[in-house]
Design brief:
Helix content is 58%, strand content 13%. The protein is built from eight helices and five strands, in the order ααββααβαββααα.
Length: 267
């Protein structure tokens, strides 16, 4: 039996009587989605591109889904704060924007807080999300399966699958969705980690470049004034404060000016 948070007060939908052919087709769809995840080359796409691909594979892997979204939260924050999200279709974008940007209420937020899948078969009558459910039901969307994305003890986001029909996600769908969400979480986490590492590398490279330019500027000031390195640095700092521009920009302008003068003398 699948482990999930069902809609309170609503009898879970009966398991569909699936033929062996349909069961095999669902397993093949799940397998295809997992193969798609495995083929995503994390260093060849951005986090946004990764989320978009995972959402597409989720629709393929989860029976009954008419559309899906994948959400990533900021790491190292106790409060849930959305970092990025991607969807497969416009109606999902509207629904997820309602959750994150207007109501701060909905199945995605609930499943990330509880760390358990959340299922609803009649959103309009689901008392867990009184504001969200009614709005979404009036859009003609009645079922949701929200799956937390977890890596170890850390929740990094969620997959939200939506359907227009009522009671679209029975235990069979929850079980297959859960099988998909485990490797999906690893793929998203790796993409997030790689993007963070790239950002830090870029920042370090920029810091090293900036320090080199400042050192060059200090050398130029010292050659002109005969002062110490500290005195040259303080002079650059005063110019920075007076002109309201960054110290690195002051240094770069000074170095560029010195280069232009040196080239002019060689002509």
């Amino acid at each position: 039996m699948a482990d999930y948070d069902a809609q309170p007060g609503r009898k879970p939908p009966p398991e569909p009587e699936l033929s062996p052919a349909q069961l095999q087709a669902d397993e093949l769809d799940l397998h295809a989605g997992l193969i798609g995840l495995a083929r995503i080359v994390a260093d060849g796409c951005s986090v946004d591109e990764m989320l978009s691909q995972v959402a597409q594979f989720a629709v393929q892997a989860i029976p009954g889904a008419d559309g899906a979204g994948v959400t990533l939260i900021h790491p190292d924050h106790q409060a849930l704060r959305i970092q990025a999200w991607s969807v497969t279709t416009e109606f999902v974008r509207v629904i997820d924007a309602l959750q994150y940007e207007e109501l701060d209420e909905g199945p995605c937020i609930s499943c990330m807080r509880s760390r358990r899948p959340a299922v609803s078969g009649s959103l309009g009558s689901d008392r867990r999300w009184p504001h969200f459910g009614g709005r979404v039901a009036r859009m003609g969307v009645h079922s949701v399966l929200a799956l937390p994305l977890t890596v170890g003890d850390q929740v990094i986001g969620a997959i939200n699958s939506y359907a227009h029909s009522r009671d679209a996600f029975a235990e069979h769908a929850v079980a297959l969705g859960t099988q998909f969400s485990v490797p999906a979480a690893v793929s998203v986490y790796n993409a997030q980690l790689l993007a963070s590492t790239r950002q830090r590398t870029t920042q370090l490279q920029e810091a090293l470049r900036t320090r080199a330019v400042i050192d060059q500027a200090i050398g130029i000031v010292r050659s002109r004034s005969g002062g110490t390195a500290q005195e040259a640095f303080e002079r650059l700092s005063r110019i920075s404060q007076k002109e309201h521009i960054k110290l690195a920009e002051v240094a770069e302008q000074l170095v560029d000016e010195a280069v232009r003068r040196a080239r002019a003398r060689q002509r």
